[in-house]
Amino acid sequence: QMQLVESGGGSVQAGDSLRLSCATSGRAFFMYAMGWFRQAPGKERELVAAISRSGGSKGYADSVKGRFIISRDDAKNTVLLQMNSLKPEDTAVYYCAAVYGMGYIEVPSPSSYNVWGRGTQVTVSS
Question: Are 29 and 77 spatial neighbours (Cβ–Cβ below 8 Å)?
Answer without folding.
Answer: yes
